[in-house]
Structures are given as structure tokens and as C-alpha cells.
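Deviation from plan, reported transparently: adenosine-5'-diphosphate complex.
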Amino acid sequence: MTETAPPPAPVADDATPPPPGPPDGRLALVSTRGLTKVYGRLTALHHLDLDVPQGAVYGIIGPNGAGKSTTFAILSTLLKPTAGTATVCGFDPTRQPKEVRRRLGYMPDVMGVYERLRVDEYLQFHAAAYGVPRNQWTELIEGLLELVDLDVKRDAMVDSLSRGMKQRLSLARAMVHDPDLLILDEPASGLDPRARIEFRLLLAELQRLGKTILISSHILAELQQMCTDIAVIEAGRLLAAGTPNEILSRLGSARRATVRFLDGTEAEYPVADEAEQAVLLKRLMTEEEGREIVEFKVVTHDLEDLFLQITEGIVQ
Ligand SMILES: Nc1ncnc2c1ncn2[C@@H]1O[C@H](COP(=O)(O)OP(=O)(O)O)[C@@H](O)[C@H]1O
Ligand SMILES: [Mg+2]
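Because the crystal trials were delayed, the predicted structure below was used instead.
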């Protein structure tokens, strides 16, 4: 990739305070401030403030209609916000779309149809569209197909690939111009469990290569496993942002034991860890003598559980 000019200094605006950036001082590769999108009478995004640190695998969790695709389309220069600002790799997607596109690989939630293209032709087509010199195509495409584990499918027709393979090809397509940032809109939806695991491993590899990854999903357990940072949005509003652990710690005790007695009563106890669980169990067996315990169950919050609580307004 050719040398490019350093990002311009942010435009001073007395009315807005300087962006706070990620809390731990990591450099934000993507920031939004007050990002708002109105479609007719519907406000799809309400003053969204996000900071995506460089090198992060940043997950945006939200149910259908939360505004994930709208956010990604704005960051990817495909849609103009109604209000607010965004910075992507140092540039404004509205005013400097070319600079942003050069540094960004966007994988939309639906892949186009390319009935008559082979896998290698498909990548050549996109390499050409991004202005990659023709004499670099062979090496580039070899490398990408190897990365996404599709080298054996080089001569296959795109339409003959499984959904998981198509998603990996779509990811390779998003990388033909070696972007710093990847924006992946629900890449794991519709994949079978095995294909999901393969996709997750591929993202880990991309992170090792130094890419910053912004990914959306409504499958919370998946993001929990692969993301360094998570933002939860619902109906266009940011409900929580931080590392998965930070979000969990906002809920207080992440683990609780529920005990059911033979007389039909139940009790719930917060427990910090397995050692506390053992102490509690021993105490119940001795102190609660005479009340037969029929069930001792430990529930841990995962993000799915957390998400329900967040959307119910328990955490603000
Ligand atoms: N082009 C559009 N015109 C009108 N409404 C839209 C348009 N695109 C999205 N919306 C609406 O905006 C909201 C957010 O949509 P979207 O960003 O696609 O959410 P998500 O990707 O989280 O499912 C939804 O209510 C959706 O129906
Ligand atoms: Mg969407």
C-alpha cells in the first residue's frame, strides 16, 4: 500500500468537548460522537458515541432493528448520518470517503450474487475494482485463499460454495486492498456450528495480523468468546460498552446459587466462586438440618443473560 498523508487534525469546535476516547487510553481507530440517523419518522440511531480501540475485536450486540447495519453503513461511507460525526482511521466517512474506503474492508450482511464467476475470478474482479495492479493479483489471491482456507476451491463456481465458504470468500474479498479495519455485519449468522468455529479462528488470525475488527451479531455467546470489547445497543441507543468483564462486573455478583427444599421453598445466595459454593453447601447441610435439599443449582451470567437484564433497564 502506498504512503498516505497523516490524518488531518480534528476540526476545532468550541461547542463540543474533545472526544474522550477509550477509557484506558488505547488509540481509537473508529469514533462516533452523537451519531444520529433518521429514516422518515423513525430515528434509527440516537446520539451514538462509540470508541473502537486499535487492534480490538469490537462486537456490537443488538437485536434486529437495533441500528447495527445503519451504523456500519455510515462508517463504511455508504450512508450519510442525519447528525453527529464519525472518524474512521483518522478520516470523516462523509467528507473523505475515498480515504476511508482505502483503509476499510466492509463485509455486508448479504453477499451479492455472482452466478458465473469462479472463486479466483471473483477476487480478481474486486482486486481490479480496488486498483490492485494486475501483476500482483496471483500472489494476492493465493495468499487470501490460503488465509480463509479456500485454496482448494480456487476453480469452483462461487454459487456452488456452502454458506460458510461464501462468508469466508466474502471476508477475503473485503481484504483485497489490505485494509487496517474490517467491518463485518453479522458474518456468523446462518452458519452451522462448525463453520462458526472456523470463522472465529479466522478472526483470531486476522487480529494477530494487526487488523482492527468491528463485528455485529445478535448471537451473544459468540461475541463473548471472540471480542476484546463489546457495545450493547438497542433501538439505536448505546446501553453499555466495555470489555466483556467490565460489563459483567457492572452487574455485581456474576454467580448465584439457587437452592430448592423438599417443602417447596426456594432460596437464592450470591457466590463469588467455587470455594464459596462449597462453603455454602456445607453450611446448608448442617444449619438447615431438617429441611431436605432437593436441588442446588449455580447460575452464572453470560452475556445473553446480561443482555436481557440490560434491555430490561436494570443496568443503565
Ligand atoms: N433504508 C431504510 N429506510 C427506512 N428504515 C430503515 C432503513 N434501513 C433501516 N431502517 C430501519 O432502521 C432501524 C435499524 O435498522 P438496522 O440498522 O438495519 O438494524 P440492525 O442491523 O441492528 O438489525 C430498523 O427499524 C429498520 O427497520
Ligand atoms: Mg443488520
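The mean pLDDT is 85. We consider this an acceptable substitute for the interim report.
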